[in-house]
Amino acid sequence: MDFRIFTEPQQGAGYNRLSRLAIHSEALGFDGFFVSDHYHAMGEINPRLGPTDAMTTLAGLARDTDRLRIGTLVCSSTFRQPGRLSVIAAEVDQMSSGRLELGVGAGWFDREHEALGIDFPPLKERFDRMEDQLSILELFRITPAESTFDYKGKTVALKNCPALPKAAQESGIPIIVGGGGPKRTPNLAARFANEFNLPFSSPTDFELQANRVRQACESISREADSMVFSVAQVLCIGTTEKELERRSAKIGRDLSELRENGVAGTLDEARERIKSFQQLGVSRMYFQVLDEDDLDHVSLLSELLDEFTEVEENA
């Protein structure tokens, strides 16, 4: 399995905290470091530093790290004009020497749109925008550098668009689509995504949604095994109950709720949670770290995950 760190900068992390955590995660051997794409805190506004811009953050991390895969879970299509996102993503991929992965979503948090004056259309139109964005990212990937393309979608039209700049990755920037929607989400994942991600769900819910994605792949004659299946889970682990209570209190979450809905609890509990997803075909896990200053927390997770690496190496 691949193991990645996932952060929520809109809660007030600020760039320096994120960079320090990313460098620490890279030193520990994690596969990737990902950020959400939000402009407004969830719950009470955190007085620390306010939100960061996801793509700006990734540009910085591209230069601060050497090996980590970096990316978004996920870019909201309401924030990013499709052509501009394609240009920005290619540039960040170049800056990272080909380490960018791009999660794309429809957007859902109405409060941040209201706060910043960003249009928040009905759900169907948001999914139409997402489909247009995925289509244009694909056209940037497959159109030769010396050519241009036209595109007329449901929400946007491009005319005589140069397919530049090109990503550093020859096969293009890997695309991640995720979510629990029963129809359109699986279909978009099957058509466009290298990876399907289900965040903050139980193994049972993951199995149901993964089966929908596999069926959507089969409906267009795509091999389901060509898709990476991943999950994101909030992290709160410790060696003692006192340590667990301290960490859960720091992030403002109830420990019993975390145990039910995340990779949380003792190391034994966390180990079993990871295994439950692994047994269902999950090959990549994103651990949501909500206290970016707690580097010891990530170090403890790394020690636990060493067991999984050793098992795979000895298999």
CATH architecture: Alpha-Beta Barrel
**Beta strand %:** 15-25%
Largest sheet: 8 strands, parallel, barrel
Unreliable stretches covering 5 or more consecutive residues = none
Record the strand order, biggest sheet.
1-2-3-4-7-8-9-11
- Structural class comes to alpha/beta
The count of DSSP E runs of length 2 or more, i.e. the number of strands, is 11
CATH C-level: Alpha Beta
Give a structural overview.
It is built from eleven helices and eleven strands. The protein has one domain: TIM Barrel (Alpha-Beta Barrel), CATH 3.20.20.30. The model has no long low-confidence stretch (mean pLDDT 94). Helix 1 packs across helix 2 and helix 2 packs parallel to helix 3. The two termini are 13 Å apart. With 315 residues, the chain is an alpha/beta fold. The strands form two sheets. It has an eight-stranded parallel β-barrel with strand order 1-2-3-4-7-8-9-11, surrounded by ten helices. Strands 5-6 form a two-stranded antiparallel ribbon.
